[in-house]
Structure prediction request, 325 residues.
Amino acid sequence: MFDENYKNLIIADVKKNGTHVLRKYDEAILDDFDLMCQLAEDNFTTLDYVSDRLKNDRDFILFCIKHGSAALHYAPMEYRKNKEIVLMAVKLNGNALEYASEELKDDEEIVLAAIKNSPMALEYASERLSDNYFIVERAVEADGEAIKFASERLRNIYYLVNKAIRNNSNAFEYISEELQDDIRVVINARLKENNENLYFTNYSQVLKFASERLKNNKVLKYANDNILKSMLMVCNDYKNLSRLPKCFFKEENKSFLELAIDIIKDSLKKLPITKENKAYCKEVARFVKEVIAQKKLEIENDNEVKREKDRNRKAFEDEIDEMFE
Prediction:
């Protein structure tokens, strides 16, 4: 219909000035399938300027999406409601979920495909699915910062938040205030990567948003990994320590809590005997007592566990207080 020289002039015009120049061309040009495909191959926004016929041409829309999944933004609603087309788009670019219909933003298969390609596409999921533990877990395992698009409820779940921070320390900014004041979360952020499947994270980033209580905690700031991991053992498992089978451990006559305390004491004993280190050890002692006392309150109605913890706690307090005297 149009000679090649004229088509080449249009292509050159669009490349130089952008697809908005298509507004000056007549409908016959904008209805030329081959020419519009050539333009869409370089710029998916071509779909916004083509003829009404091409805007409703399934083959043309699929072509545009394959060359730029955000072309879904310019597609008629019937295509944004089409699961097959939207699924193809989000597999190419998860953020195309932004342009899907509200119904498909609430479709688990669509949302999972979107976050598999781009975890931050969780931003566009429905309110229901942003409160879905399984879906949010998949997102934060790939990019922890995606936690900021999770529901308020999920941003207050320790295990999910911990996974997010393992992946990306920036996630700490978006978790609940309650967990920003949770010693376990901050300890995890302090641990460095090693052969035991721990990880490195930007602790300075965590400190920006940690509670004032933890931000200024000297134990967290200066403790080595052995102390931190032992603290985490106490924080995470205090409630169930006495119920674990002792044969599970190398030292069969010691409880889990006692082993954790031994690691802390051993690490402290290796410090040079200085005035500063004595003060630091007392800080550790006060801190561990505080953690155990907090956990003790959580199990005060469990008399069997309470008796065991009281015994271990008192023994630890006595020993650590005497350590550097």
Q: What stands out?
A: Confidence is low (pLDDT under 50) at residues 192-200, 237-256. The first helix runs from residue 4 to 17. The radius of gyration is 29 Å. The chain is about 60% helix and 0% strand.
